[in-house]
Amino acid sequence: MPGETVEDGHGHGTHCIGTAAGPASPQHGPRYGVASEARVLAAKVLSNAGSGTDGQILAAMTWAVAHGARVISMSLGAAVQPGELFPQTYEQLAQRALQRGTVIVAAAGNESSRPQAIRPVGRPANCPSILAVASLDRALTVSSFSSAGIHGQGGEVNIAAPGRAINSAPPGGGYRSMSGTSMATPHVAGVLALLAQAAPNASAEDLRASLLCVPADATRQGRRLGSAPGPVSESSSSGPVGVILAVDPDRCVEVVEAARGAGLTVTGEQATLGTLSGTIAEDRIPALKAVAGIESVDRDRTVHLPPPDSPIQ
Predict the structure, then answer these.
(1) Which residue from 176, 240, 268, 310 lies 20 to 30 Å from 249 (Cα-Cα)?
(2) HSE toward the beta carbon, residue 17, CA cutoff 13 A
(3) pLDDT tens, position by position, for the chain (313 residues)?
């Protein structure tokens, strides 16, 4: 995170890591971690105020895959409108991560206010190759805030886990209770870590299938549904706009130069899984999309977390 130390100045990330991989025998109080023997790779992608960009998140995902992560847990996201297509750049990266043995899970979102209003699964959890996690209350009913799969194109909820009043670790020690699909997601990540520990040679498809109790072929078919490229969101901005791109990893150097020629100012490049981020004049986006080797172009959106004193975090 530019301009900040790696330490968690928000508390959200520490709480999530504690749920996924906290100790089996804490010094004080009950156990809260699922996979206590898991090795943690922590990447800070949101600021201490709880915001960041898609480009920062994609860079961290690539770093985690390159370092051998079997599971990537993302308790973050951005709200989408009903019918909005999932971001193709995230989907391309998630597919390549699966091929390399990494399963990605992400929070479905906290935008609902059930029963009056039910909002769709946010991004990037709405990608077909990313497992979207909803929240359950103690009675195993869906939490009132939990977003739902109200349309197709990958925007379904794949699994649910406890997300209401979850006790875990805050920075500095002790316990903290938090609620949200962010709290449900590391429960699922922890279970996937246990599955990977029990079957170290299992593929990412096998881990997904074991988690969801469905044949691996069915998960592959599910990823293919709704995989047609989507348009870049319209904007009234007249200046440069932020974009994220999926490119052919085998042609990354060549594509970067061609993208620059089309007007892209590159701010981030992750050749391992073939993603770029940068800025470009809006009227140059069609030329950018026409560059050979570029597979998708999406807007680089800002991701926010609720403030620390919010009842849903």
Answers:
(1) 240
(2) 13
(3) 778 888 999 999 999 999 999 999 888 778 999 999 999 999 999 999 889 999 999 999 999 999 999 999 999 999 998 888 899 999 999 999 999 999 999 999 999 999 899 999 999 999 999 999 999 999 999 999 999 987 666 689 999 999 999 999 999 888 999 999 999 999 999 999 999 999 999 999 999 999 998 544 444 433 332 223 333 334 444 579 999 999 999 999 999 999 999 999 999 998 889 999 999 999 999 999 999 999 999 999 888 775 544 555 4
Q: Most distant CA pair in the chain: distance in Å?
A: 59
Last residue of a domain, one of 171, 203, 227: 227
Query: Is residue 127 a contact partner of residue 85, using CB atoms and an 8 Å limit?
Result: no
State how far the Cα of 47 lies from the Cα of 23, in Å rounded to an integer.
26
Instruction: Judge whether 188 lies within some domain.
Output: yes
Same domain for 135 and 223, yes or no, is yes
Number of domains composing the chain: 2
- Are 87 and 209 members of one domain? yes
Residues 150 and 269 in one domain: no
Q: What residues does 107 pair with on adjacent strands? A: 133
